[in-house]
Amino acid sequence: MPQTASLHLTNRLHIHIVLESESERERERGARMAEAVVLLDVWVSPFGQRCRIALAEKGVAYEYKEEDLANKSPLLLQANPVHKKIPVLIHDGKPVCESLVIVQYIDEVWSDGAPILPADPYARAQARFWGDFVDKKIYDCGIRLWKLKGEAHQEAKKEFIEILKVLEAELGDRKYFGGDAFGYVDIALVPFFAWFYTYETCGGFSVEAEAPKLVAWGKRCMERESVSQTLYDPLKVYEFVCSLKKKYGIE
Amino acid sequence: MARAAAEDVKVLGHLLSPFVIRVLIAFRLKRVEYELVDVRLAEPKSEILVKSNPVYKMIPVLLHRGKPICESSVIVQYIDEEWSDDGGSSSILPADPFDRAIARFWAVYIDDKLPYLIRALRWEKEAAKVTELVGQFRQVLGRLEQAFTECGKGKGFFGGDAVGYLDIALGSCLGWIMALEKGKSVKLLDAEELPPLAGWAERFLAEESVKGLVPDADEHLKVYEVATARTSATPAA
Question: Could you name the Gene Ontology cellular component terms for this entry (chain B) (predicted)?
């Protein structure tokens, strides 16, 4: 490792002349950064996972704080007074809320890492459109799949399969939604890949049968460390939903 | 800054949609000429609409050199980036990433709350429910006034000295807010309760980039049925 002399001016106005190796300086930077970046989250939240994946893609060290939604921390209530929801990214004490807003923020602040949104304005617009589509459609329709019965359940199933087909058509034969590079839409959607088992089991259909390219895409994304280290086993997610169903007294 | 020829830039929509108005204000700010094309929204919808927005079949749609961009917030950001003057005077989103995140957060909040409240209030005839909706509306506007204080930092607009992303997101809804106030005989943006926000609304509507784009209350009421009967103590149907 090359040795470099560097002059550090801390905010207590001590002047250190330090002989450091590259890796030591990186470790120190990592430690400082980790204090400066906090993520308030819940393990199973697909919205929180978007943020975790984005941070991992950028190589940003951060402190993860697991919230108990039945007993929200004062920090969460202070950081997101409007919605009192996770995820919240707190950077240098300043809170950012709404998962896709957070992902864009991460992309803009840590702009030296691999870009999450593409450079071209038209491609960015397409990415934002599809990220918004995922936001509007999947989670709410998914909830109806496991919460509702009878006619309403059939409606939800029809709608959900339609959503999958639209996404399948948009993906086409591309490696990722953005093309060759893993990006914004992939990050918006991939946390739900771990929910496919839950959706198909509660819905009574097969995601693979309805959207095989989407399943292949999900597996490709799982080859990325940022994704495989973040998503939980689909069975764990299903267990979680079953416990929710019990809590709400749903059969 | 290159001025795009109007034939390059088509917006599908009409002025009674706040979402369409957002797009037009953004173009005015960038001094970009556009052609506004009305389309049929009732079935069978216009072919150009279905072709360019197959997912939602809704307005607005921006067609730039024939390529479609949909969803008003996406379109406004596209306009900001495509006709960028690198953080100059016509920038719609703020320059600082944190300020951008705050602007985006509140724009999501507006889209979460206002379209639903506008629609619900427009069609509600039952007095008690109208009162409830008005209460919710005023609460939302109260929160947005707090946002105005935070984002505006003492200046005239959410964007500071000039109209920006959040001004456009909320200001585009003022036509409907005023129409509902008149049609339902209620106060939503109450100047006595929310003087800073009322002041902002007046300034916004007087802006060059906005003038003529927000139809007045009567325009709205002419086209849409708004219950004009004064709310009374009559029992619900």
Answer: cytosol
